[in-house]
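Backbone-to-sequence.
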């Protein structure tokens, strides 16, 4: 349980990463958001049996990590936190799609192919989303969403949820620590205490939410979350978007792995 709490609590670490300086960090948030959306749409447009054709798309997160100098460990930890849910969803595919195919003399169920496709697609899209947050920050991302005319109420809900997940987990951590001190021989929270624990957490959450809201009002909050000065889109931002979009379209149209294999085979022959 402490591992889960720490993972959620450390979400604020992504904002620290977004404050770094690099060529990727300096790209306009709207351009990075559109690039990420295009990337996710193109990746998801592939068929359920097209795993190999997805491989060139790994070039995008690799280049972003290399140029932005974002540490890999925090990104991989968050991917590992999400992937078990994806595996839980896709692991049933071999049961429903039992048709077999031959790959290099190996008989394989089509269900395993679709499972692999789901896994690779989720890996690519989650990594792209995490890199967007790690190189942009939630405030500037909200600014980009408002530029795309996303309703204010949705953007506000996203910001407040992101901000106060750590507040909620902080309350859970305090209650867990207090319970552990009162029952040092107990491993975890006894199931008889689950109901009272959840009730206390709900009461403390309401109380904390009221205090946070009053603090926001005291600082002039009137329904609009101020994210600071807006930046204009520059030529280099447009070039960034055009280059990545062209790359995604080319990889979507052409079968790059087959072309590379044909070239290598032709050279060898």
């Amino acid at each position: 349980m402490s591992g889960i709490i720490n993972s959620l609590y450390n979400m604020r670490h992504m904002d620290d990463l977004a404050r770094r300086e690099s060529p990727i960090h300096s790209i306009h948030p709207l351009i990075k958001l559109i690039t990420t959306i295009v990337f996710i749409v193109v990746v998801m447009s592939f068929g359920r049996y097209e795993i190999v054709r997805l491989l060139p798309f790994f070039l995008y997160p690799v280049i972003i990590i290399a140029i932005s100098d974002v540490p890999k460990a925090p990104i991989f930890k968050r991917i590992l936190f999400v992937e078990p849910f994806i595996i839980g969803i896709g692991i049933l595919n071999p049961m429903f799609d039992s048709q077999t195919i031959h790959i290099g003399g190996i008989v394989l169920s089509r269900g395993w192919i679709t499972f692999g496709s789901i896994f690779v697609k989720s890996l690519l899209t989650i990594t792209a989303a995490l890199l967007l947050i790690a190189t942009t920050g939630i405030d500037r991302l909200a600014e980009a969403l408002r530029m795309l005319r996303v309703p204010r109420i949705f953007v506000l809900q996203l910001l407040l949820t992101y901000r106060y997940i750590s507040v909620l987990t902080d309350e859970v951590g305090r209650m867990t620590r207090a319970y552990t001190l009162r029952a040092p021989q107990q491993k975890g929270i006894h199931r008889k205490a689950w109901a009272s624990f959840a009730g206390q957490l709900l009461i403390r959450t309401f109380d904390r939410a009221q205090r946070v809201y009053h603090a926001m009002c005291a600082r002039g909050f009137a329904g609009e979350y101020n994210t600071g000065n807006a930046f204009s889109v520059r030529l280099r931002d447009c070039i960034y978007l055009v280059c990545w979009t062209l790359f995604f379209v080319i990889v979507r149209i052409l079968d790059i792995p087959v072309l590379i294999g044909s070239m290598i085979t032709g050279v060898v022959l």
